[in-house]
Amino acid sequence: MMPGSRTSVSVPHTGCVRPTYFGSCVTSTNNWAEELRAALHLVYHHRKAGTLTQVEKTAFLVRFDALLEAGLISNPTRKQVLKQRGWVKQFPGRNLALPCQKHRDKVLCFLNQNVVPFGNNQAERDIRVVYVKRKISGSFCSDRRTDPAGLQSRSARRSWPL
């Protein structure tokens, strides 16, 4: 994988981490992100095939924590610049490792529950229909539809007879 290329990997049920760009974190000093991505995919495929044992699961959890620690060590916190307001922009690797560490149980919930998918592609496909409908109609607000001016402008756009 080329450094800086974006490999979108969805992490289940974590709004703070999804989509996770492991590729933007991979550099010569940040190979922990690539190892983390590979470890997640490996344990996912073992879980999907039903061959994941409790020993392998425990070993993965230890490796997951170690890789996140390596990510935090290789991406130290940037300091506040004097007379600069607002938050300090952090390294992409740190922005990946901190939420994964903070929401570890949510990130790894696919290991313990069969109904939780590894990624959220299906959820995004399910929502897309509603999103497109909302985008076409303007909104789902009923009070706007009763507004005569709004109805006239919409009907003029769509060539509806009044």
What does this structure look like?
- The protein is built from seven helices and two strands, in the order E-E-H-H-H-H-H-H-H.
- It has helices at 32-49, 54-74, 92-102, 104-107, 121-137, 142-145, 148-158, and strands at 8-9, 20-21.
- A two-stranded antiparallel ribbon has the order 1-2.
Please give a handful of descriptors for the protein shown:
162 residues, mainly alpha, two-stranded antiparallel sheet, 7 helices, 2 strands, disordered N terminus
What layout of secondary structure does this protein have?
Blueprint: E1 8-9, E2 20-21, H1 32-49, H2 54-74, H3 92-102, H4 104-107, H5 121-137, H6 142-145, H7 148-158
Antiparallel strand pairs: 1-2
Number of helices: 7
By oligomeric state, this entry counts as: single chain
Q: How helix-rich are the residues, as a percent range?
A: 40-55%
Largest sheet: 2 strands, antiparallel
Mean pLDDT: 75
Total DSSP E strands: 2
Shape type: flat
Helix-strand category? mainly alpha
**What pattern of helices and strands is seen along the backbone?**
EEHHHHHHH
The side-by-side strand order for the widest beta sheet comes to: 1-2
Unreliably modeled segments? 1-21
Estimate the strand proportion: under 5%
Write a short abstract of this structure.
53% of the residues lie in helices and 2% in strands. The protein is mainly α and 162 residues long. A two-stranded antiparallel ribbon has the order 1-2.
